[in-house]
Amino acid sequence: MVVAVEKLITSDILKPARYLGNELLAVRKPWDTAAIRWVLTYPEVYEVGASNLGHIILYNVLNAQPRQLCDRAYLPGKDLAAKLRETNTPLFAVESKRSLAEFDILGFSLSYELGATNILEMLDLAGIPLTWRERQQSRGAEGQGGRESTDTQSSFPLIFAGGQTATSNPEPYADFFDFIALGDGEELLPEIGLVLEEGKQAGLSRENLLLDLAQIPGVYVPQFYDMAEDGSVHPLRPDVPKRILRRVTTPIPAYSIGLVPYVETVHDRLTIEIRRGCTRGCRFCQPGMLTRPARDVEPDRVVEAIEQGMRATGYNEFSLLSLSCSDYLSLPAVGMEIKNRLKNENISLTLPSQRVDRFDENIANILGGTRQGGLTFAPEAGTQRMRDIVNKGLTNEELLRGVKTAWEQGWDKIKLYFMIGLPGETDADVMGIAETVSWLQRECRGKGRKPLNFNLTISNFTPKPHTPFQWHSVSTDEFKRKQNLLRQEFRRIKAVKVNFTDVRISAMEDFVGRGDRNLSKVVRRAWELGAGMDSWYENLDRAFSAWGSAIAQADLDWKYRQVENGEWNVFHAEASKGKEDGENTQLLTPNSSLIAPHSLDIPLPWDHIDTGIDKKWLQEDLQRALEAAIVPDCSFEGCSHCGVCGTDFGHNVVIESPAIPKFAGEFVPNTTKAQRLRVWFGKQGNMALISHLDLIRLFDRVVRRAGLPIAFTGGFHPMPRISLATALALGATSSGEIADFELTVPVEVDTFREKLAREMPTDIPIYNVEQIDLKSSAATQLLETAEYLITVAALAETTPIQWQNWIDTIKAKEELWYEQITKSGKSQLINLRDRLFELELVESNKSVAESMSSVIRYLGSYRQDGLVLRPEQILFMLETVAGVEFQLLHIHRNRLILGV
User: Fold this and answer.
1) How far apart are CA 759 and CA 839, in angstroms?
2) pLDDT digits (tens, 9 = 90+) for 266-284
3) Residue 370 in contact with residue 718, Cβ under 8 Å?
4) What is d(CA 599, CA 606) in angstroms, rounded to the nearest whole number?
5) Residue 446: which residues within 8 A CB-CB, separation 6 or more?
């Protein structure tokens, strides 16, 4: 069943274009010929999900498989979610517009501890039961979401999760998923698809299908396991593995190319992965532990993917992605090679947070240019002692050298990440953050230069499973006290902006992230009480209240208090070693404390997940932390014996850097204006839901993909010389829009039109292209009038004769006064009749509700000095003469008329 989205996705919805799907490079495969139909669902709004690299890669990988189809879905905004519930319409996939319940398998990305509430919201909107038990109980139900049921298979798709949080500790979410995909998915998901296809052909029951899936390394089926009294997890049957292996894959950059959204996303650029995994060994860092070994991508493949991707997408910016980009030895060579190849196209490179100790002039050169991006470093701690405890591998000298290099290369603002609440931290270490920032400012002063500005993010340490610090906690009160210490100290330091993480959510993340299966009921109740979008600042109060109530109702507030009070403190445990005797196991109870030395031997809810890292090694590394002993990076020095390298997970792959190409020079904007072309185009169908700013971005990318020699403006931020005559209201269609293009070399008009039209969406037709004199005024300066067709409904019984009489009355009047509020807030009266030149009734029809709707054509003033007659002002005229209320149903701009 295809959902009638045109009735749902209207201009009154916030950013309606986020729901359109079928963007450039999206994949449309025939529904009927697919054996297995996937939906990859990202439980965040489109702007976040559509720019997530893992989401894009797996979408492309699955659609590359024969007989497999992959669609996408995202968390809808509150306004669309309300519409879906009001109209009893199921949540749909963006390409096919089919209900999620029609697919064979739904995969959710779970990359944040509190993100499961968004998943429950999406399942509920799709009409799919929330737990695997409820879905099994619904076996045999017919007509759910348009699927036909059989005697052996549930009428609902298989639901699974993947991602960092799902891999590290799936237990708090075990009730909701049929299975969990652990680790990298590029090879794992196609294997799952083949097993599903065979099982579907054989008519296997849901249980037997899941049993087959459980034999695939990397697939964890929670219903085949149970939790013991001590929190550990064990198989319920002998034919499933005791420990489930994390999957490891070498990245393939070509799969990163895809999806050019119509709306601006949070990472609005091409992103290419250059290295997967990190072996730095930061003891707080879960991604670094969960993604070992480190695997470099061959530099030639990276360069090829970037060049191909920039041509295919039309982006003006690309990013190289890794947990530690600076550890990719080929970074300067790859960056310079691409910068040289694309030097004439105003392309810029951005990098995520970098190792400050590896930042040098070579990296600065590839990041600089006409659109110099931001720069982010993560010292993590303010003193050398704390950086050694967390195994950051960074000295004060290296920190200063990296920051000073950035300052000398032209950066006036740098973002720094710090963390408080780390194990063994003292007040002197906390104050060291402010002292370090002040010291860096003093060292980076120069004549004629502004003081170095810092934008600081100071987060609260949250212990993560599978890290040496997984046995540690910090009290909420202690976090608050340390934040206040820093607030007082930073008041004395100028040119520094400081952002702190909310301590309440940090405690919740800790509680859920290290929880067991008992928390599934908490997650569900929190969602029922309104939790969702919990990482968004404006939702924190509601989220905290919902989670707190859910924990209390589950009688687990005693356990939450242990986290909130920081009772699992390994440094305290070290101090008390030898004072207590006891068994090597300890059960968590409402009266228990977690500060005993033997707490490290307590079974953990995630012990059955085999990430490759030996638990004993984590304990030993924790002991090294207590001694402030560092462990070298095993990618470049000796093996640290963590247990990962071997047959199951592979080994570190470090590729030596090729020679860095000679710098060919910065982009110099070509401001030559050899030709000006005026284009008349339309905006129809779905493109009516594209905003004006998004349309400007679309034109920029179209011109880049078409390879047209567009001229640029000068100055510090060169922009392509593309000028749209005026904006069109969101939701309005048009057959008369105008844009001016200035080119550096003349191009045949027909050639220009053909290239432009080839790259445009079909709903933006190109009607005409004309060459105009270079010295003539821009279209935006020549606007005089605009012709509209507006569809208007009367909220009362009317006749065509009445409509014609009202229009004749308006035309006969010389004055129709309208109160207008200026931008400054002042009220002024304007005579709308002076701005109306033509008005006629085109047609009248009965609507479904038996009220009369009519199409009216008008020609009115449309000047850039503010003398504009807007469609809603025509309604005001009608209401003035008719005494009837009207509703504006649709706006279509027929044409824009330019003066001479």
Assistant:
1) 37
2) 999 999 999 999 999 999 9
3) yes
4) 15
5) 407
Number of other CB atoms surrounding residue 827 within 10 Å: 8
The tokens of 253 are what? Answer: 């950059």
How far apart (Å, rounded) are the C-alpha atoms in residues 702 and 688? 18
For residue 752, pLDDT over 70 is answered with yes
Question: Residue-wise over 350-364: b if at least 16 C-beta within 10 A, else e?
Answer: bbebbbbbbbeebbb
User: Which run of H or E residues covers position 63?
Assistant: helix 53-63
281: left (phi over 0), alpha (psi -120 to 50) or beta: left
Query: Residues 418, 420, 424, 428: is their CA dihedral positive or negative?
Result: positive
Question: Helices 188-202 & 206-214, crossing angle to 10 degrees?
Answer: 150
Pairing relationship of beta strands 244-245 and 733-743 according to DSSP bridges: unpaired
- H/E/C letters for each residue in 860-886? EEECCCCCECCHHHHHHHHHHHHCCCE
Non-local CB neighbours of 448 within 8 Å, separated by 6+ positions: none
Q: What is the pTM of this model?
A: 0.93
Report pLDDT digits (tens) over 474-489: 899 999 999 999 999 9
Residue with tokens 């599978």: 466
Residue located via tokens 């304990």: 619
Residue 446: per-residue pLDDT: 85
Q: Cα separation of 740 and 725, whole Å? A: 8
What is the per-residue pLDDT across 11-41, written as a single tens digit (0 to 9) for each?
A: 999 999 999 999 999 999 999 999 999 999 9
Rounded CA-CA distance 766/679 in Å is: 7
d(CA 497, CA 560): 32
Q: Smallest Cα–Cα separation from 464: which of 341, 289, 244?
A: 289
Which residues, listed in sequence order, are joined to residue 42 by a DSSP beta bridge? Answer: 74
Pair 116, 172: CB distance under 8 Å? yes
pLDDT tens, residue by residue, 317-365? 999 999 999 999 999 999 999 999 998 888 889 888 789 999 998 898 8
State the Cα–Cα distance between residues 739 and 376, nearest whole angstrom: 38
Contact call for residues 417 and 428 (beta carbons, < 8 A): no
User: With 50 as the cut, is the pLDDT of residue 717 above it?
Assistant: yes
* Three-state secondary structure string covering 484-531: HHHHHHHCCCCCEEEEECCHHHHHHHHHHHCCCHHHHHHHHHHHHCCC
**Secondary element (H or E) of residue 893:** strand 886-898
pLDDT digits (tens, 9 = 90+) for 654-712: 999 999 999 888 888 899 999 999 999 999 999 999 999 999 999 999 999 999 999 99
**3-class SS letters over 757-812:** HHHCCCCCCEEEEEEECCCCCCHHHHEEEEEEEEEEEECCCCCHHHHHHHHHHHHH
Contacts 24+ apart (CB under 8 A), 543-549: 543/114, 543/505, 543/508, 544/504, 544/505, 544/508, 547/114, 547/508, 547/522, 549/525
423 touches 571 (CB < 8 A): yes
* Closest CA relative to residue 128, chosen from 181, 91, 174: 91
DSSP 3-state percent helix, strand, coil across the chain (nearest 5): 35, 20, 45
Give the per-residue pLDDT at 535.
60
Q: What is the pLDDT of residue 839?
A: 97
**What is the separation, in whole angstroms, between the first and last Cα of the chain?**
53
In the chain, DSSP finds a helix count (H) and a strand count (E) of 27, 29
Alpha-carbon gap, residue 709 to 707, rounded angstroms:
6
- What average pLDDT does this structure show over 604-619? 96
Q: How far apart are CA 836 and CA 861, in angstroms?
A: 7
Supply 312's token pair. 């295919």
Spatial distance between the Cα atoms of 660 and 662, rounded to a whole number of angstroms: 7
Sign of CA dihedral 151, 157, 163, 164: negative
The three-class DSSP label of residue 295 is: strand
Contact 155, 566 (CB under 8 A): no
